[in-house]
Amino acid sequence: MNIVAHLLAGVAALVIGFLWYHSKTFGNTWMRGVGMTEEKFASGNMAVRYGLTFLMALILSVFVAFFAGGHEEKVLTRLQHFAFHGAQLGGVVVMPIVVIVSLFEQLDFKTIAINVGYWIVTLAAMGAIIGAMPA
Question: 116 CB contacts (<8 Å, ≥6 apart)?
Answer without folding.
Answer: 90, 94, 95, 98, 99
